[in-house]
Design goal:
The chain is an alpha/beta fold. It has helices spanning 64-74, 169-176, 192-200, 205-211, 259-268, 272-282, 298-303, 337-342, 361-378, 465-472, 476-491, 499-507, 512-522, 570-582, 628-634, 638-649, 661-666, 680-686, 697-700; strands at 87-96, 114-123, 138-146, 149-156, 226-227, 232-235, 241-250, 288-296, 323-333, 355-357, 559-563, 586-591, 597-598, 604-605, 609-610, 621-624, 654-656, 675-676. It is built from 19 helices and 18 strands. Strands 1, 2, 3, 4, 5, 6, 7, 8, 9 and 10 form a 10-stranded antiparallel sheet that branches. A 6-stranded parallel sheet has the order 15-12-11-16-17-18, with helices on both faces. Helix 2 packs antiparallel against helix 3, helix 4 packs parallel to helix 10 (465-472) and helix 11 crosses helix 13 (512-522). The chain is globular and about 90 Å long. Bound molecules: CIS-heme D hydroxychlorin gamma-spirolactone 17R, 18S (HDE). Residues 81-84, 87, 120, 122, 139, 141, 154-156, 161, 166, 169, 229, 311, 344, 346, 362, 365-366, 369-370, 373-374 line the site of CIS-heme D hydroxychlorin gamma-spirolactone 17R, 18S (HDE). CIS-heme D hydroxychlorin gamma-spirolactone 17R, 18S binds next to strand 2, strand 3, strand 4 and helix 9.
């Protein structure tokens, strides 16, 4: 377990706590270390009672201790992010592992260089207090504290975006967030306004395919890919620029849940992802991602059937392989959620020399939006002074004052040019041609500038080819999930009956089979196909776009729920626990009573969770270790039957004692490759999911 750090509360250094406690009317302080003071350092004698006139009289306005405490509390909340409000953060380090000095002069990429960083993962649509597991895109934002200033790579877990131009972002977000009059649904796209907007905006089609796939149901934040999405530029010391796309590849492999599991996770644990990340780091199981780049030049860009400046398009990895250039390790939880995870302010405009922007019109819009939002969210132009946002390298300029200024600049130099140095005074910092950021003006992506136009380039007009590419790259079971998601989401469209047919008309341009399946699922007729702005072309399917084709058969970083009850065989249990640990999995015991179960050898085995509150969807695989008597007792409990039924339905491996047979039977578990005894076969199976179990997947293929 990670060691506890000493408190960083400012009062910790103040000696002289007399240790008196107020025990009138049963009030206790619970003990503590340092002296409690007001925010202005005045020691407080009583933190239990406000100042009143007489023992039962009115409270006095004079009570500055009470006033300050309540006033501070009244202002504790800041505006939540308009998007990505719910997030989880962690500290870490990036180590550059490849020499790419031929491509970029950025110090963060110097082979062997270690750079501290902060990561915030998020959902997009829900509020700060919403659940962790809705069907939603996940934010994947990384702030590298490089020695040349902060680099913020603010991406998502999907390599493309819904729209092509920043001017559509407020419309997209208004449409997807809760509906303006009724205030629901929270955190989900399955409602009228989102699908109204989406069906009228064909450029969303490619991203919709990803959003309807299991990509939006990650098993863990540790098991998601991350993407910078936009095309960026790398610039080397000679000033040569190349195009680049950034990728994060999780060492734990990409893993998703399935829809029913995600729904039930919302009930079982609102904080499923946040807890999983915190506990993994706290337990020393540090999540890791490799940073990869796809590098290409103008000639490649010109030869593609899509525009590399269009954020609704990806570059298949088969066309430009991802080259790994470093590793990120998350190794420290935040000390304070508000101070760090809430106040962290990402700015896609933060790039060090050696990294630059392309003319992607979505990226261009982001370059000003984030600075604006941070000022309104954090309430001051000095938000860069908040520790989680401050560069770790020296920084200085002539910007001064403003609300919450915490710097105390010395001297008169608050302007430039100045010649104060000639007078022996500190003249302040100066620009540097040699090391400063120089905007790349290479032709790449800049060839169409000139006249002032409100126009979308023709090269952005193909909205279906890559949606089709994505569909064709999926396994039959992944395709079934996508079709079902469209059916589910469109079935939630209420009064706007024009929307589902309009969406189907778009889907016909992606794949006739998909459109037919969705129409059948909704029980409506297939409309005429929409007229595409540009006819789609067929691209070669790519295995890299499928989760199932790339899953990592491992128990590492995964959990196994182990159901026990009174009478469980102690040796059998010890065997399972040892085998799971040996495979680097995490065994988590579940029993009817959290205090424990009495094992066959008379010992009391404590549990991680109580059966009724710890359903099997919290785990990657399950073991059911029961005696005959234990099974007879559990079979009468709905929670136990549901435990096995859900594990099977959610395609997980089930290892069971012989005596647990009747429970499995009652739960409708059918023996297949994923249902095993508790021997070595179980640990192997536990690293997998059994997609063949899904009803109808094969028939639909
Ligand atoms: Fe964001 N986005 N975004 N976005 N975005 C914000 O900034 C915005 C876009 C992304 O964990 C906001 O600090 C505009 C694409 C992440 O703190 C805001 C446009 C991608 C996060 C904002 C986009 C993202 C945000 C809200 C269209 C993937 C969370 C609070 C031009 C590449 C960062 C904040 C965190 C957050 C604006 C499009 C990812 C309002 C105007 C594309 C991961 O500034």
């Amino acid at each position: 377990m990670a060691s506890k750090k000493p408190s960083t509360t400012p009062v910790a250094t103040r000696p002289g706590n007399g240790g008196e406690t107020h025990q009138d009317a049963g009030q206790e302080t619970g003990g503590g270390g340092a002296v409690l003071t007001t925010n202005h350092g005045v020691p407080v004698s009583d933190n239990q009672n406000s100042l009143r006139s007489g023992v039962r009289g009115p409270t006095l306005l004079e009570d500055f201790v009470l006033r300050e405490k309540i006033f501070h509390f009244d202002h504790e909340r800041i505006p939540e992010r308009i998007v990505h409000a719910r997030g989880s953060g962690a500290h870490g380090v990036f180590e550059a592992t490849a020499d790419i000095s031929d491509l970029s002069k950025a110090a963060v990429f110097t082979k062997g260089e270690k750079t501290e960083l902060f990561v915030r993962f998020s959902t997009v649509a829900g509020g700060a207090g919403s659940v962790d597991t809705p069907r939603d895109v996940r934010g994947f934002a990384v702030k590298f504290y490089t020695r040349e200033g902060n680099w913020d790579l603010v991406g998502n877990n999907i390599p493309v975006f819904f729209i092509q131009d920043a001017i559509k972002f407020p419309d997209l977000i208004h449409a997807v967030k809760m509906e303006a009059d009724r205030g629901y649904p929270q955190a989900g796209s399955a409602h009228d306004t989102f699908w109204d907007f989406a069906s009228l905006t064909p450029e969303t089609t490619h991203m919709l395919m990803w959003a309807m796939s299991d990509r939006t149901l990650p098993r863990s934040l540790r098991m998601m890919e991350g993407f910078g999405i936009h095309t960026f530029k790398l610039v080397n010391a000679a000033g040569k620029a190349s195009f680049v796309k950034f990728h994060w590849k999780p060492r734990a492999g990409v893993q998703s849940t399935i829809w029913d599991e995600a729904l039930k996770l919302q009930a079982a644990d609102n904080d499923y992802h946040r807890r999983d990340l915190f506990e993994a780091i706290d337990g020393g199981d540090f999540p890791q991602w490799d940073l990869g780049i796809q590098v290409f030049d103008q000639a490649f860009a010109d030869a593609q059937p899509y525009d590399v400046l269009d954020a609704t398009k990806l570059i298949p990895e088969d066309d430009v392989p991802v080259r790994i250039i470093g590793t990120m390790t998350l190794n420290r939880n935040v000390d304070n959620f508000f101070a760090e995870t809430e106040q962290v302010a990402f700015l896609p405009s933060n790039v060090p020399p050696g990294i630059d922007f392309s003319n992607d019109p979505l990226l261009q819009g982001r370059l000003f939006s984030y600075l604006d939002t941070q000022k309104s969210r954090l309430g001051t132009t000095n938000f860069h002074r908040i520790p989680v946002n401050a560069p770790r390298c020296p920084f200085g300029n002539f910007q001064r004052d403003g609300q919450m200024q915490t710097m105390v600049p010395k001297g008169r130099a608050n302007y430039e040019p100045n010649s104060l140095a000639a007078h022996g005074e500190d003249g302040g910092p100066r620009e540097s041609v040699a090391t400063g950021f120089v905007t790349d003006n290479a032709v790449i992506g800049a060839d169409e500038t000139g006249d002032k136009l409100r126009i979308r380039s023709d090269t952005f007009a193909d909205h279906y080819s890559q949606a089709r590419l994505f569909w064709r790259s999926q396994t039959p079971s992944e395709q079934a999930h996508i079709a079902s998601s469209f059916v589910f989401e469109l079935s939630k469209v209420g009064v706007l009956e024009q929307v589902p047919p309009r969406m189907l008309a778009n889907l016909r341009n992606v794949d006739e089979g998909l459109a037919k399946r969705v129409a059948a699922g909704l029980g409506i007729d297939l409309p005429k196909a929409a007229k595409p702005a540009r006819a789609p072309v067929d691209m070669a399917p790519s295995d890299t776009l499928s989760i199932h084709k790339n899953m990592k058969p491992t128990l590492e970083g995964r959990s196994v729920g182990v159901l026990i009850a009174d009478g469980t065989d102690a040796a059998e249990l010890a065997g399972v626990v040892a085998a799971v640990k040996k495979a680097k999995g995490k065994p988590m015991l579940v029993a009817p009573k959290v205090g424990g179960a009495k094992l066959s050898d008379g010992s009391l085995q404590q549990a991680y969770g109580q059966l009724a509150g710890t359903p099997s969807q919290l785990f990657d695989a399950v073991a059911i270790v029961l005696s005959e008597a234990g099974c007879a007792a559990l079979i009468k409990q709905g929670a136990a039957v549901q435990w096995a039924m859900d594990a099977f339905g959610h395609l997980k491996a089930i290892g069971a004692s012989k005596a647990a047979g009747p429970l499995l039977e009652k739960a409708g578990v059918v023996v297949d490759a994923g249902v095993t005894d508790l021997g070595p076969k179980f640990v192997k199976a536990a690293a997998l999911r059994f997609y063949d179990r899904e009803p109808g997947v094969r028939d639909l293929a």
